[in-house]
Amino acid sequence: MTIMSEHLLISRNSDGDKREKLRSILEKQFTKITKLLYTTSVPSDVLDNEVLPYIANDVVFTDPWQNGGSKELYRIGMKGFHCMFNFTMDIFQLNVKLNDDDTGRVIVDGIMNLEQFKWIYTYPLRTILVYDFRLLNKDVYEDEQDDDLIISPLFEIYRHEEMWSFGDMIANLPVAGWFYRNIFRVGFGYAFVFASGVSCYLKDVHIEHEGINKFHISKQILHKLALFRHPNVSIVMDIIQDVCHAFMYPHEVEQNETNTCDDILRKNATEIQEK
């Protein structure tokens, strides 16, 4: 029994070592592939020889602008990207996850640097890359001299996704980015908080005054918020209340939810009226 346990332990340790070795090699390979894909000074023949063998025939590429697939379309898009733009890629983190069904996922966190006009400005874009891949061979061998893989390819990528934010894209633009970061986002933040506060108050009033006419409720709210100074405001608030009734209040009367915003709103409204 002890001998069998020792054999099982050795086997598990051996499998674990192989898995870690495989993960380590995959990290090196995906780092290399990412650098080749997103460093646009890399020659076309290098892409054909060192990237394309790792691309599956049914590959699908996705980013915020597009979604499509096939190895040939991927090849054309890859080379077109290198011809049209001047990019480099800074990798902050790369993680490999291996599944039990001989598939895996790689997530890369980094920054794509657009250097099209680098004498004026280098445009950084925070980017998350996701590669889904299939293992073709778990037996890995390395050249002891240069630590490069002898066998190739070890895997094939069947899904490649680029994720980046339009907000980040705008925020990093010269001039426009400053207005977006310092004016639009700040203003939108205040507007959202105000809308949230009004929504909380509307919800609370709806619970307490279920049978009261909607226009009367809106007018009461506006008076308490010291906003009832313009004839169009009551119309706008009626519309807001109708939207809230349609989308936000189907069950609150039965649930009788408490409104955590109410005390703050009442206090603020009172202070405004006193001023």
If you had to describe this structure to a student in words, what would you say it looks like?
The N and C termini lie far apart (86 Å). The longest helix is centred in the N-terminal third of the chain and has 37 residues. This protein has 2 domains: 170 residues, Roll (Nuclear Transport Factor 2, Chain: A), CATH 3.10.450; 99 residues, no CATH class. A hairpin with a 3-residue loop joins β4 and β5. The N terminus is likely disordered. The protein is an alpha+beta fold and 275 residues long. It has a 6-stranded mixed beta sheet with strand order 2-1-6-5-4-3, covered by helices on one side. It is built from 9 helices and 6 strands; from the N terminus they run ααββαββββαααααα.
Short note summarizing the structure:
The protein has 275 residues and is of the alpha+beta class. The chain is built from 9 helices and 6 strands, in the order H-H-E-E-H-E-E-E-E-H-H-H-H-H-H.
Secondary structure: elements and pairs:
Layout: H1 2-38, H2 44-50, E1 55-63, E2 66-69, H3 71-84, E3 87-98, E4 103-117, E5 121-135, E6 155-163, H4 166-171, H5 176-208, H6 214-224, H7 231-247, H8 252-255, H9 262-274
Parallel strand pairs: 1-6
Antiparallel strand pairs: 1-2, 3-4, 4-5, 5-6
Features:
275 residues, alpha+beta, Nuclear Transport Factor 2, Chain: A, globular
Radius of gyration: 29 Å
Order of the strands making up the biggest sheet: 2-1-6-5-4-3
- Which CATH C-level class of the largest domain is it? Alpha Beta
Tell me the fraction of residues in β-strands, as a range.
Answer: 15-25%
Shape estimate = globular
Query: Number of folding domains?
Result: 2
Percent range for helical residues? 40-55%
CATH architecture classification name of the largest domain = Roll
- Cα separation of the termini: 86 Å
Low-confidence stretches: 3-12, 226-230, 247-260
Structure annotation, total helices: 9
Taking the sheet with the most strands, its summary is: 6 strands, mixed
Number of strands: 6
- Give the overall average pLDDT: 72
